[in-house]
């Protein structure tokens, strides 16, 4: 049946939980595009035939193929756009540098889109307020406590906090640090918030 | 308000000489919070409040500067820090709400901006407008390169206005009435209902379809909660 491959693309995204990004289905996309090409050519032929030989009986199949073409287009665009939305969410979750295992699942064009999105977002953030701007990807949660207990998950070297003291972030060491200083490092996976 | 803000009071008033109504820092933060809540709970993008954003950014800069001058180890520093973080959270959250709606409804937002009549206030700040246009262009270029240009000739374009859904203005919102409103027309949702009229008393709280109160949100007569 027509459009099955296109639906499969949609189902593939639907199956993957929670905004994760599966590998880019280059093959699937190509098959849908090939089906579209075939349908279009058949329609071109039938349309000329219908006009030339007055074959009105061909019109229902022409209409059917046209509907399939529209459906395929819609499914493909939905598949591609949904992936873009998942990639966009990654910028907000992980920061500007994506983990390698995620990048591996992105096509070259998606990587390009991401690069452009990052740039637009950075421009926007820099323009806020007229001085240095504001990083709106920080402060994702309302501030609760001033200082938090954190454990260091990997060696990160020296870390300076506001009053000048320098902390050595060694793997497995625990520290009581100002929350606002730790946010970025927590999101990057260097520190872990220890809740007692 | 904390000490850090009250020290700044005089500075802000002098800086805002262009503003007709000079705001105290407390009023400024209250305005920010109102804009934040309205934007958070409204299904559609509201008018931009860049004057408020700019003033709050200035305020934060003043507060940070004051914080540097506080003696190290002084207990007050912690409270000032918390105040700064809270305000920065509200501001970031406000801007994030707007960005999310801009991205979600990008063709509609750009269309509305394009069709503004002379004298009507802008929906987007200039920076948001640039961001929205870049988002549109980036996405369109991507879709064309990866799929659309490989499709049959009559299918190489996608009407973004039709492809991207519009915000649902009939979603229900909670609101508190700030200025008394009379004779608000509630249109029926189904054919069996009839339309009726309500008066909104000052201070009362309601749950209604956004569409009905949209103009009241813009004018500030109601506050979304």
UniProtKB/TrEMBL annotation, chain A:
GO terms for cellular component: GINS complex. It comes from the Eukaryota. The keyword Nucleus applies. CDD domains: GINS_A_psf1, GINS_B_Psf1. Coiled coil: none annotated. Residues 56-128 form the GINS subunit domain. Its main location: nucleus. The keyword Cytoplasm does not apply. Keywords: Chromosome, DNA replication, Nucleus. One of its GO terms (biological process) is DNA strand elongation involved in mitotic DNA replication. InterPro entries: GINS_A, GINS_bundle-like_dom_sf, GINS_Psf1, PSF1_C. It is found in: Chromosome; Nucleus. It holds the Pfam family Sld5. Residues 144-195 form the DNA replication complex GINS protein PSF1 C-terminal domain. Component of the GINS complex. Required for correct functioning of the GINS complex, a complex that plays an essential role in the initiation of DNA replication, and progression of DNA replication forks. GINS complex seems to bind preferentially to single-stranded DNA. Required for correct functioning of the GINS complex, a complex that plays an essential role in the initiation of DNA replication, and progression of DNA replication forks. GINS complex is a core component of CDC45-MCM-GINS (CMG) helicase, the molecular machine that unwinds template DNA during replication, and around which the replisome is built. Belongs to the GINS1/PSF1 family. This is DNA replication complex GINS protein PSF1.
From TrEMBL, chain B:
Residues 78-145 form the GINS subunit domain. It comes from the Eukaryota. Keywords: Chromosome, DNA replication, Nucleus. Transmembrane segments: none annotated. GO terms for biological process: DNA-templated DNA replication; double-strand break repair via break-induced replication. Pfam families: Sld5, SLD5_C. Residues 1-22 are annotated as: Disordered. InterPro entries: GINS_A, GINS_bundle-like_dom_sf, GINS_Sld5, SLD5_C, Sld5_GINS_A. GO terms for cellular component: GINS complex. Gene3D superfamilies: 1.20.58.1030, 3.40.5.60. Residues 167-225 form the DNA replication complex GINS protein SLD5 C-terminal domain. Coiled coil: none annotated. It is found in: Chromosome; Nucleus. Belongs to the GINS4/SLD5 family. Required for initiation of chromosomal DNA replication. Core component of CDC45-MCM-GINS (CMG) helicase, the molecular machine that unwinds template DNA during replication, and around which the replisome is built. This is DNA replication complex GINS protein SLD5. It comes from Poecilia formosa.
